[in-house]
Amino acid sequence: MSFELNRRLVARRPSLDTDIKIDAVTASIINGSFETICFEVATHLGRAASSAIINQSNERNASIIDANGRLAGISVGIPQLLFVSPLAVRWGLENAEQDDWGPGDVFVGNDPDYGGGHLPDYTVYAPLFDEQGELVLIQALQAHQGDTGGKDPGGFSVDSTDIFGEGLGIPVLKLVHRGQPRRDVIDLLIRNNRFPSFAGDIAAMISAVQAGVRSLHTLITRYTVDSVKAAINYNIDQTNSRFRQAVAQWPDGDYPAHVWIDQDTAGNPDVHVQVTCRVVGDQLTVDMTGSDARPELVNVWNTFANTRGYAIAQLASMVDPDINKNEGLFYAVEMVIPEGSILQPAPNKPAALGAFHPAVEVGEAICIALSPILPQRSAPQVYKLGMPSAVIGFNEAGEMWMDQGVDVRASDASATQGLDGWGSMCAGLGNLILATAEDAESRFPVLNLSREMTTDTGGAGRWRGQPGTRNIKQVLEPVSAMTWMVSRKHPLRGLCGGDDAAPYSNFFLFGSADEFEVENAINAQLPAGAVTAYQYGGGAGFENPLLRAAEAVREDVLDEYVSVEAARERYGVVLTGSAENCDIEIDPEKTEDLRRQRVAENIRDSST
């Protein structure tokens, strides 16, 4: 049923029925209105929600979908998640008649086997009808929930063998009927969620999409229904056309890439994602044939909607950013996602962790594949941590609290052509706001002992990756601590000859006699006072490190991004003095000799 349903949900939808011809300026104004409304809907949720993961971290995305189920507009958000909601809404549309859709209704869905992302990502949506009762648009809003009612608090389980262990799956459920909340249904959701703040979060999601519908009603009143329909058709066609125009400039050919995840949560090693980007004229095909399909794998099953979304997010970053983000992107790209693989699993596979890995590896593989022909636009829209160290406890009233571990950090900020990795937070996190020490400590019994960039963790290159950080934290109460470690063996890959980033690592009971390194998945009980030390990998390098200006390497050493030893070993730059004394100088003759020797060695190695 799932594969058949997926094929149906992604089938190309027709244009909206209208005879209006619209000009480019009006179509652009209406598209800008969609973006503004989506931004306002997402901001409404951020200000009204109760939990930190929404009201502090910005982990929410809004979108507008037309009556035929096509993505018409999106907000600024987390890139990979911007394109996930349409399939969940399409499942709702398939059932609109039997579910009695009407003005004032609000729905929710989260089930990966019915178009959803993973269970923690709730998509709440509300239809807009015109004065004649015709469905015109759907305002959708996706946000990550702190719990899903599964066997483990927080919605993530490192040992679930099916989706039922992860929580409550909702194909589609009506939350509001003709403007009246369905208290029985909402109470059911609240009862199946451990988070005491969930009641406020779901209420905020409902009110946000209702506000979006009101704004959309004002828009269609101003421009007429037919003009809005015509604008949607025009903008989708333009996106399709402009993306194809970009592809037509690329050299024809097959561009393959292979990426691996260290292991699944059961220890099965080297989980494989394979992508071949095929360019023929103006047609781009992203063929994921060859990706892992071992039936014994555990918790590395990505959802079909996430696979499509992560692929489009990466591709959208590799063309002109002025191209509108809508259904036209999906029209322009053919995807081959093998049924039964980790990128389109059979029904009922656990998918909570798969939405991290192998989801991000899809984008990483596409970036690697296309980097030889698009070096100027190759920036991986990914993060490589398997899972932060989430700590969970209960207060005196028996209410659960959880520090999700989404802390301020430097990680995965890769270099691009002409630019070192910078800004600490990688592009793949979009508008996500990471938790400050002050905010986390005011909410949870934790102390943030240190957060410092780590020398030599950024990948070397002509342009250097940003170093990663080591975050050291202490819990003040007994807690359960859960994490899944990857990128210890297969860190973020360098591009166009640049070095990979440094690997991740994580230590529990850090600094004590019982200290140990977390090598895979773990759900451990930590006593009060226990310390964890999470080393985040840095960004990857871009192009051969021997091409980096020697003076830039000297400055990196003074800034403690790079050690004197790494300057010599990785960059071929010989320095005198020390960073501590701030008297670092370049030895130009020895540097020239060493670099000449390294180039000769590289030529010899490549010929053999």
Break the fold down into its secondary structure elements and pairings.
Blueprint (H helix, E strand, L loop, with lengths): L1 H9 L13 H25 L3 H4 L4 E7 L4 E4 L11 H9 L11 E4 L11 E9 L5 E10 L28 E5 L2 E2 L1 H9 L6 H26 L1 H24 L4 E11 L5 E12 L2 E5 L16 H13 L11 H5 E4 L22 H12 L16 E8 L5 E4 L33 H7 L2 E8 L15 E7 L3 E6 L20 E4 L7 E2 L3 E6 L4 E5 L14 H9 L5 H8 L3 E2 L8 E2 L1 H20 L1
What does this structure look like?
- It is a single chain.
- This protein folds into three domains: 2-236, no CATH class; 383-543, no CATH class; 550-607, no CATH class.
- 30% of the residues lie in helices and 21% in strands.
- It has 14 helices and 22 strands.
- The strands form five sheets. Strands 2-1-5-4-3-6-7 form a seven-stranded antiparallel beta sheet, sandwiched between helices.
- A hairpin with a 5-residue loop joins strand 8 (253-263) and strand 9.
- The mean pLDDT is 94.
Question: Beta-strand percentage?
Answer: 15-25%
Mean pLDDT: 94
Structure annotation, total helices:
14
- Roughly how many Å is the radius of gyration? 25 Å
Order of strands across the widest beta sheet? 2-1-5-4-3-6-7
> Helix coverage percent of residues?
25-40%
List segments where confidence is low: pLDDT < 50 over at least 5 consecutive residues: none
Key structural traits:
608 residues; alpha+beta; 3 domains; seven-stranded antiparallel sheet; five-stranded antiparallel sheet; 22 strands; 21% strand
